[in-house]
Amino acid sequence: MKFRNILLVVLLSSTTALLSVWGYNKYDSYQQAGTQEPGKLPVNYAKFFDKDLAPAGAIDFTAASMSATPAVVHIKTKTKARQVSNNLPRGRNPFSDLFGDGFEDLFDSPRSRTIPEQRASGSGVFISNDGYIVTNNHVIDGADDINVTLPNRRSYKATLVGTDPSTDIAVLKVEGKNFPYIVYGNSDEVKLGQWVLAVGYPLTLDVTVTAGIISAKARSIGINSRQSESPIESFLQTDAAVNPGNSGGALIDTEGQLVGINSAIASPTGSYAGYSYAIPVNIVKKIVNDLIKFGTAQRAYLGIQYAPDNIPEERKKEMGIKEGDGVYVTEVPAGGAAAAGGIKKGDFVTKINGIAVTTGPEMVEQVTRYKPGDKVTITYVREGKENTTTLTLKNKVGNTDVVKSQTIIDKLGAELVTLEKQKAAAYDIPGGVVVKKVGSGAFKNTRIQDGFVITMVNGKEITSVEQLKQALDANKGTTVKLEGIYPGYESSYGYPLNLSGLD
């Protein structure tokens, strides 16, 4: 009996002790909820002590700055004063019936205004020893004269090789050799928190270096839509101080390699307020090569429409967008590369040539590196299952042809040929350009008829299509006067041609 009592006491004591310990642990865990246990690291720190990601020691920017600054130039532009049309509606002048349509030209026209000469400046980067310079399109857009000054004070007149407003990139060329230049880096290897330096000519100061870190990648801020209907944005975001004048300058890593071209700032005042944005060098390299080789960017299209990033949940439901990793495909137009590759609405694009993409800007950045005709492997998820397809990228019009650069002559919308010498002699003129057929471009807004022979532009003699092109280029953005004859008629004729929007 005693033994049973003793056993009962022991069991009760043990149970009480266990419940007390369990209760205390429960209470203690509640009290310590959200705190960290010493000696343990979460999974996101698994690679913290890897060689490539280990915290660096003290960093010296001296070598990188000294290597890069000689290759960053000051770009100064000048845009001539020009007269532009106000495009205001106007009734017919009652005196035109008596004195002709040119009567109104004797007086100031309310339909035009004069824009005074403008000067601006920015930065640029030598990318080769034979004088090629990369800068922003917005730095030189509309400029009549472009001059570059090196840190050693030597100045050169630059010629424009080509521009790509979609990416805000332009390439210039100066004559000479053995120029200093910055070595290309690899923007894919740039990491968040990595030190970078911005080099340029802010606020018209001499070459200036500022330091910061990469604060984000694949940023889209909508700024390139100001100059292009099909903008490409996948910026490197930094907190290196960048001000007006830095545009087109270099963003380099601590080894002095080019990782981006500074392009924009986020600021309510127009000056530095915390963040700046640079075009990744891997995009820059591709566009630069296109502009030098073809005169225009060879942009490839995947052939899909996709859901914007950070779209509100309510809007997602309205659009029927599912949850998932990758870029959600909302439409697949017929005839595009994606349609040919079997991609459908509702798929999630997750990789391009094995490189993961989680946002629209990341996907666009990858596609931008290729040209029409290139084959790429697309990984996508459909109903939870991963699939892979290989497709051929196309250009904007749906084929793989090389896109040619359009000159101001191409944009006139007319078929133009140089007048044959025999015919020029028969017409008793030195030469000219025959308007064989008026199309749907700028010529459609004039009264020029098929067969008109252009002999002068603003009083300057024209004897070939090349001379016509040079004359129009010299007066881009303005309204010029074309003079010439119609074969078989004795009189000469003059027509105003508005070049606004054609440069």
Short recap of the structure:
The protein has 503 residues and is an alpha+beta fold. It has helices spanning 2-31, 62-68, 96-99, 137-140, 281-294, 313-319, 337-340, 360-368, 421-426, 465-474, and strands at 72-79, 82-85, 112-115, 118-126, 132-135, 145-149, 155-157, 159-164, 169-173, 195-200, 208-219, 235-238, 250-252, 258-266, 275-280, 305-306, 327-331, 348-352, 355-356, 375-382, 385-392, 414-418, 433-438, 453-457, 460-461, 479-485, 492-498.
Explained architecture:
The chain is α+β, with helices and mostly antiparallel strands and 503 residues long. The protein has 3 domains: 199 residues, Thrombin, subunit H (Beta Barrel); 74 residues, Pdz3 Domain (Roll), CATH 2.30.42; 89 residues, Pdz3 Domain. The protein is built from 10 helices and 27 strands. The strands form 5 sheets. A 7-stranded antiparallel beta sheet has the order 7-6-1-4-5-9-8. The protein has a 6-stranded antiparallel barrel with strand order 10-11-12-15-14-13. Strand 13 and strand 14 form a beta hairpin. The chain is elongated. About 5% of the residues have low confidence.
> Low-confidence runs (pLDDT<50, min 5 residues)?
85-110
| Domains (count) | 3
| Sheet/helix structural class | alpha+beta
Please count the beta strands (DSSP E, at least 2 residues each).
Answer: 27
Rg from C-alpha positions?
A: 32 Å
Strand residue percentage: 25-35%
Helix content: 10-25%
CATH architecture of the largest domain: Beta Barrel
Order of strands in the sheet with the most strands?
7-6-1-4-5-9-8
CATH class of the largest domain reads Mainly Beta
Shape: elongated
**The biggest beta sheet, please?**
7 strands, antiparallel
Distance linking N and C termini: 111 Å
- In the CATH hierarchy, the third-tier topology of the largest domain is known as Thrombin, subunit H
Estimate the mean pLDDT confidence: 84
Number of helices: 10
